[in-house]
Amino acid sequence: MGKFTTLSGKLKDRASQMKLNVVHLCSSVNTKNIDEAILKATTHTSNKPPSDKYVKFLQSTMATCYCPQTISGIVQRLCVTTDVCVASKCLILIHNMIKSEKGYEGEDGHRGTNSHRNLIYNQGESNLKLDDLNVGSSCFTIELVPWVQWYKKYLNIYLCIAEVLGVTPNIKEKFEEKRLETQRVSSYTTDCIFKQVDFLVNLFEQINARPETLMERPNIIVIRMIGLMEQDYVSVIRLIKIRFEELDKRTADPAELIPVLVRLDKCRESLSEFCWRCKPLDKEFWDLVLKLKAN
């Protein structure tokens, strides 16, 4: 960052802190701590992603009565900023908050509840639209802009998937989580499963549409985005695989699967970059895709 940009950022951060101090004169300590953590995680003056310290603190509020305030604070920060670095950090925070939802811990997960992904989604997709970002002249921010625009589209799709599935697409390798999800899927109609698969494949297509990364000068905010996306990739593979296996058991016309299989095939080469995270699962998944295509 240039000296003027850095000074301007420091002044903005200081002004935000002063405003926060005034606003919270009569607030509880917890409320002030949440807003301070959001400010410190999304400063104007750092080219680094949100500190794990603040991410973990904010995630710790997700299962408490302070969840709505945390979500509202992050979304509000995103809505008012014109700084591309601040916007990228807000999106990373939103992604982390959604992923912290433990929707596979019980038979019903968070279905029908006012979970934090619902809190974000119900405020409208417009909250994730960023049309007036100040790009600046640094190579860092110029590279970051297309990633921020891509990332907000990615998160919109991610939130839509959470609404369609009724749970955050964040399934782990644990046997119990897979058992519960398989049980849920077996109770769905075939049309419902097709609809869910369609949304899940949308996420793969958005991953496929990601901007190029300049490997000679890695952007660490972009690296954090990619890291979170890679985790989602593994979860979505599990979710699609469970649904394909269920469809394979049914007597539905195999031809109905062809369009979605073709869409997946178009993404395969680009997605292969992430197969190192789950090589056995990745192989099983694409073998299943080939089997379904052969049918």
TrEMBL record:
This is ENTH domain-containing protein. Residues 26-169 form the ENTH domain. It is found in: Cytoplasmic vesicle, Clathrin-coated vesicle; Golgi apparatus. GO terms for biological process: clathrin coat assembly; clathrin-dependent endocytosis; vesicle budding from membrane. Keywords: Cytoplasmic vesicle, Golgi apparatus. One of its GO terms (cellular component) is clathrin-coated vesicle. It holds the Pfam family ANTH. PANTHER family: CLATHRIN ASSEMBLY PROTEIN, ENTH DOMAIN-CONTAINING PROTEIN. Its main location: cytoplasm. It comes from the Eukaryota. InterPro entries: ANTH_dom, AP180-like, ENTH, ENTH_VHS. GO terms for molecular function: 1-phosphatidylinositol binding; clathrin heavy chain binding; phosphatidylinositol-4,5-bisphosphate binding; SNARE binding. Gene3D superfamilies: 1.25.40.90.
